[in-house]
């Protein structure tokens, strides 16, 4: 037999709506408070009424004790009280007409006892007091009025408590329903939002309370979703276009080589395949890094990395592959705690970006403080307008479409740099370079 969690069982029987839960909670709390208050009130009233009857009985006892020697054998009294005077030998020496025919055996007590007298329909509170000469004065007072009062009050309380609980439940149901009506309206509006109408927004009630803040928060969430959807669609469109270009080039070379073998040599064909294949490889690798960053799975295998070795290696590559004038005289020693492969990709993307936009010169600078390593890559190109310096970090962003494609760029380089720097808890920013182009400065916490 499979065991069942008690929380699951309780949860199944619980109200399904917040409105019902608030109403049930209010009813239970108010019912408990009213029941406790009603019980306390009933007990206090009972004690006060009994104390009043007891005080009246004590008054009768004092009066009888003062007239003890002059009392007749039988005295006429009201039906709501009686008395007996019992001698030391246990005989009744004086009594009222309503008293029992036999002597009552009641101990001397301050509280008294409750007795049902024969032929009487109500109980009596009976007290006994011993006198100095050995006699006992027994006095009884009817509890009929007390019991009627308690019965009436008890009935009223038994009827009023459920009525008050019902009133509180109805009021709570209405008030909570009215308070949650905007939330239900917003829920319906959000439920109607799909990927095709993310431009829709929730009606803002213009209030400064929780409802108004919830509406504004949900609108900001929808705005972020819409922006994310636009970015995703643009990314897919740009990625498809970027993948299409090298594939189309490879297809073109292959068709020409098959149809006209004499027009394309094997060296030209292999060079084209290698170039376009390398472009595809770089594009796919960049997209993979960005996808991992989006999924928060860009893992940094932290170890001490000599950043100056990576910078100088890229400088040597640039010297052998281009005719640009490279200045690396300001590259100093800097060690950081990070992922060597990711940092190498970051440095390569920065150097490639500078080489693509430089006219004739690229400068590399690297310095370190006690807590930060600072890498700056400068070029003497056309520069980047201030209003576009944030946009260049967007994926597939191009300020010059034709030039970037012709130079082999995909528009992902600086996006990858930003993601790698963020994964290492660093910062990257663009400023003007003294060379005339741009200066991209990266700051990464050092291992010191």
Automatic annotation (TrEMBL):
**Limits of the HAMP domain:** 177-230
Chief subcellular location: membrane
Q: Which InterPro entries match?
A: HAMP_dom (IPR003660), HATPase_C_sf (IPR036890), HATPase_dom (IPR003594), His_kinase_dom (IPR005467), HisK_dim/P_dom (IPR003661), HisK_dim/P_sf (IPR036097), Sig_transdc_His_kin-like_C (IPR004358), TCS_sensor_his_kinase (IPR050428)
User: What does the UniProt entry say about where the protein is found?
Assistant: Cell membrane
One annotated Gene Ontology cellular component of this protein: plasma membrane
UniProt enzyme class: transferase
Q: What is its EC number?
A: 2.7.13.3
Keywords from the named record: Kinase, Membrane, Phosphoprotein, Transferase, Transmembrane, Transmembrane helix, Two-component regulatory system
This chain's protein is named: histidine kinase
Species this chain originates from: Arthrobacter pigmenti
């Amino acid at each position: 037999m499979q065991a069942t969690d008690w929380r699951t069982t309780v949860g199944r029987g619980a109200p399904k709506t917040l409105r019902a839960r608030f109403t049930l909670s209010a009813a239970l709390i108010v019912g408990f408070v009213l029941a406790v208050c009603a019980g306390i009130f009933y007990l206090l009233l009972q004690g006060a009424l009994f104390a009043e009857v007891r005080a009246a009985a004590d008054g009768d006892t004092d009066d009888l004790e003062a007239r003890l020697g002059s009392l007749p054998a039988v005295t006429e009294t009201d039906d709501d009280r009686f008395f007996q005077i019992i001698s030391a030998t246990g005989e009744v020496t004086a009594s009222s007409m309503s008293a029992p025919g036999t002597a009552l055996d009641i101990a001397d007590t301050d509280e008294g006892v409750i007795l049902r007298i024969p032929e009487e329909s109500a109980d009596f509170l009976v007290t006994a007091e011993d006198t100095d000469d050995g006699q006992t004065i027994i006095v009884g007072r009817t509890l009929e009025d007390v019991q009627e009062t308690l019965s009436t009050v008890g009935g009223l309380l038994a009827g009023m408590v459920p009525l008050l609980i019902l009133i509180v439940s109805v009021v709570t149901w209405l008030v909570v329903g009215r308070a949650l009506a905007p939330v239900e309206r917003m829920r319906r509006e959000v439920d109607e939002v799909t990927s095709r109408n993310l431009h829709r927004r929730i009606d803002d009630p213009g209030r400064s309370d929780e409802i108004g803040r919830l509406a504004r928060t949900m609108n900001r969430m929808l705005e972020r979703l819409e922006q994310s959807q636009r970015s995703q669609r643009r990314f897919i469109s740009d990625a498809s276009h970027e993948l299409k270009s090298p594939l189309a080039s490879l297809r073109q070379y292959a068709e020409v080589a098959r149809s006209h073998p004499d027009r394309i040599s094997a060296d030209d064909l292999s060079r084209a395949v290698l170039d376009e294949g390398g472009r595809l490889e770089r594009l796919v690798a960049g997209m993979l890094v960005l996808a991992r960053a989006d999924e928060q799975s860009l893992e940094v295998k932290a170890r001490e990395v000599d950043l100056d070795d990576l910078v100088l290696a890229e400088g040597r590559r640039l010297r052998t592959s281009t005719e640009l004038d490279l200045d690396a005289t300001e590259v100093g020693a800097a060690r950081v705690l990070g992922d060597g492969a990711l940092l190498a990709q970051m440095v390569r993307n920065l150097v490639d970006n500078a080489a693509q936009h430089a006219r004739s010169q690229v400068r590399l600078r690297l310095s370190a403080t006690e807590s930060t390593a600072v890498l700056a890559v400068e070029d003497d190109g056309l520069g980047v307008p201030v209003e576009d310096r944030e946009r260049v970090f967007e994926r597939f962003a191009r300020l010059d479409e034709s030039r970037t494609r012709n130079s082999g760029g995909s528009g992902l380089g600086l996006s990858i740099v930003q993601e790698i720097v963020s994964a290492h808890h660093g910062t990257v920013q663009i400023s003007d370079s003294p060379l005339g182009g741009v200066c991209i400065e990266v700051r990464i916490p050092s291992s010191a």
